[in-house]
Amino acid sequence: MPSILPEGDPAPADGSLPARAAVGAEGRRFGVYVHVPYCRVRCGYCDFNTYTASELGGTRRDDYAGQVQAELTFGAEVLRRAEIPDRAASTVFFGGGTPTLLPSDDLAAMLGRIRDEWGLAPGAEVTTEANPDSVDEAYLRRLAEAGFTRVSFGMQSAVPHVLRTLDRTHSPERIPLVTRWARDAGLQVSVDLIYGTPGESLADWERSIGAALDTEPDHLSAYALIVEPGTKLAAQIRRGQVPEPDEDLHAEMYELADARFAAAGYAWYEISNWSRSAETRSRHNLSYWTGEDWWAAGPGAHSHIGGVRWWNVKHPGAYAQRIAAGVSPAHARETLTEQARREERILLETRIADGLPVEALTSAERRGIPQLIADGLIDGRAAIAAPGRPARVVPTLTGRLLADTVVHRLLG
Predict the structure, then answer these.
(1) Element (H, E) at 156
(2) Which domain holds residue 365?
(3) Is 267 part of any domain?
(4) Cα–Cα distance between 348 and 344 in angstroms, integer?
(5) How far apart are CA 291 and CA 289, in angstroms?
(6) What does the DSSP 8-state code read for residue 59?
(7) Is-above-0.90 flag for pTM?
(8) What is the pLDDT of residues 314-358, one digit of tens each?
(9) With the C-alpha atoms ordered 274, 279, 280, 285, is the resulting torsion angle positive or negative?
(10) In terms of domains, do 243 and 345 share one?
(11) Could you say which of 261, 289, 317 is where a domain stops?
């Protein structure tokens, strides 16, 4: 079942935000995330807040788009009452779950409400995740007509036995079809991969990399499989039915992916993400790493405005009840201290190719930089200022593999 929500401070029923949330808002970009919690089957490795038909407890998928639209209208009013300057959404991301289990008109209607309440900035990036077997040509054309600009396909692997272990329902042959259909519809294409599945060899992984590159996507993501407690996969490993993931093999797989992607013209910009150009980076995902603002709608969705973070009730039934009552669906929230925000910035910006400005570190923290350079964990050239180029902490390939070590060294 999905993971338990964190506890926090009580969230007000009217959603009101403290005055500090508005401080500096005009200098931060604004995005919207829409969580669609439905899946046809539950993948054995997944602990996201998702539900199959048998787990919905009487709630109906047919009602969901209307509930989200109501929350979006509620959210726009919350931000207005907080006197946060009007900002058009520069990015929108529909994630899940499988957003494309809903009719395309439902996704279009939710995007339409975002446009009505906040507007979309010129050149806004609008993405939906999709399972390869949940869309066809007509569906993708409708998304493009509605204003979507990107689709991110959960490919995960091109090897049948790996897909079976992950409980994925599509066949490898589906990937070239859906990526071509998306491109023909005028959508940018991202392909998501997972490496380190129990029983997956380095040769299996190389086959998946090759298949992904053959589709010539605009963007690639590659995530190491994490065995989450309470999942089917965790139980299988505990019972000895499948082997535990091998961390050394994970590192080899990451290095292979980075080399193959680079050779094909893709540059890394965040530890798990590569793109053909700066223009095809996922700007929405980058907003999470750089501390921008976003309203997140849907069960279990996490929002962030000016250092205030809150998360909605988890189950679609509880969410529907809150929306019907006209009150905030938030379960709890936290207001980050300035120190917590600064430490979080170090944690997040040392993961990206643009790096963390050295000036964001205290003098004590900067003392760790020479040793990080000597150990090959950060780029020595980037860490030294030059005319027109401020000093930044940028991880090397080894530093990406040891990202937690870089952060711990800086924070002491």
Answers:
(1) strand 150-156
(2) 337-412
(3) yes
(4) 6
(5) 6
(6) -
(7) yes
(8) 999 999 999 999 999 999 999 999 999 999 999 999 999 999 999
(9) positive
(10) no
(11) 289
